[in-house]
Amino acid sequence: MKSGIKKVAVACNTCGADDAEFVTEGSEHEYTDTTDDVFTVVRCRACGLFYLNPRPDVSELKTIYPDSYYAYHLQKQAGTCENRRSPLYQARRFVYLSRLRKALRLCPDTVNPSVLDVGCADGRALNWYKQLPEIAVETYGVDFDEPAVARARQAGHRVFLGRFEEAEIPGEMFDLVVATHVIEHVADPKAFARKAFQVLKPGGIFLCETPNADAADARLFRNRHWGGYHFPRHWVLYTPQSLRRLAAEVGFEVVRLDFHPAPAFWNWTFHSLIGSLGPPGARGAMRHLADRLFPPVAFQENNLRNLLAVSLFTSVDLLIKAATGQTSNMAAVLRRPVYK
Ligand SMILES: [Zn+2]
Question: Which domain holds residue 293?
Fold first, then answer.
C-alpha cells in the first residue's frame, strides 16, 4: 500500500465559511492499492455541509481511482450478452428508465427532449435512454475519459470531452441534465451545479443523485463505517437541508427530493465494519472475511448472490424509508426557473 498522498485544506464549498466541527475520520477499505492515509470528515457550522478536510489534491485522482475502480468495472461487464439477460442488469435498467421518465415529464420539451448525462462514460445509460419507445431522446454526454468518450460516440451519442465544469457546452441547450453520484466526487460542486444551471433551458430539470448524510444508516454508522463516506473519494456529502441550500445559492427551484434504496452503501458499510473488528493482530483475517462477505467491487457483478444481497439491502432501505421518509440515496429534482 502507498501512503502520504498530496492533500489540500478547503473551506465550505457551499457558503465559503471556514468554521467546521469534527465528525469522524476513516480510511480506504475498498481497494488495496490507493492510500493508507486517514481522512477527516467535518461539518460546516454555518450551513451543515459535510466534507473531507483536507481532501486529496486533484493531482491524486489516478491514485484514488485505481484501474480496478468499480465504476470502470461496471462499464466493462455491461457489454456482454449474458450480462444483459441477467435479472440484476434488467432491474437496474428498469429503475434508471423509470426515474428518467418521471423527470422527462417535467421538461420543457416532452416530445423530443435533449438530455445530457454527466459522467456518461461509454454511454451505458444513454443507450438505455435511446430505448424509450414513447419519446425520442436526443442523447448527449460529457466525460473526461477519452477511450470511454470514443466508445460513447461510436454508439451514436454526442459527447463533450472534459470535466463538466470546464467543458465548452453551449448555454440553455438541454431539457434535462442527469448527474448520478457525480457531484460528491468533484472539487467544486457549486461550480458543477452552476454549470448544470447554465446549460439548461429555462424550465429545464437537473436530476442530481447523491448520498444523504442525514439518513438513518448514515447516523447509525456516522462514526467511520457508513458506506456513503467511500473514503477518500466522496469530498462533499449533503443532507436534504444542505442540498436545498446549494440549490438556492445557484438559483434552482427544488421540485422535490426523492429517496431511493442504496444497496451498495450497505455493502460498503458492512465491509468497513467487519474489516475493523477483532484485536489488532487479527485485523488481516477480518479484512479477508469482509472481502469475502461484502466484496466492494464484485458486488456490482450481475449474479445470483448479488441479486439476493441487493434484494435484502433494498428491502431494509424501503423499511427505513417507510419509517423515516429518507434513505441514504437522495435524488434532487431541481428546475431552472423560467424567469431567470
Ligand atoms: Zn457552509
Answer: 68-335
Span from the CA of 30 to the centroid of ligand 1 (angstroms): 29
Residue 282 maps to which CATH number?
3.40.50.150
Helical axes 189-199 vs 240-250, angle rounded to 10°: 50
Q: Give dist(CA 122, CA 290) in Å, integer.
A: 31
Q: In angstroms, what is the span from residue 307 Cα to ligand 1's centroid?
A: 39
Quote the CA–CA distance of 205 and 332 in Å, as a whole number: 10
Cα-to-centroid distance, 44 and ligand 1 (Å):
5
Q: Whole-structure pTM over 0.90, yes or no?
A: yes
Per-residue pLDDT 10s for the chain (340 aa) are 566 899 999 999 999 999 999 999 999 898 888 999 999 999 999 999 999 999 999 999 889 988 777 776 565 655 565 566 788 888 888 888 999 999 999 999 999 999 999 999 889 899 999 989 889 999 999 998 888 899 999 999 999 999 999 999 999 999 999 999 999 999 999 999 999 999 999 999 999 999 999 999 999 999 999 999 999 999 999 999 999 999 999 999 999 999 999 999 999 999 999 999 977 777 788 988 999 999 988 888 888 889 999 999 999 999 999 999 999 999 999 999 997 5
Residue 23 lies in a domain: no
Assigned C-alpha cell, 311: 434484494
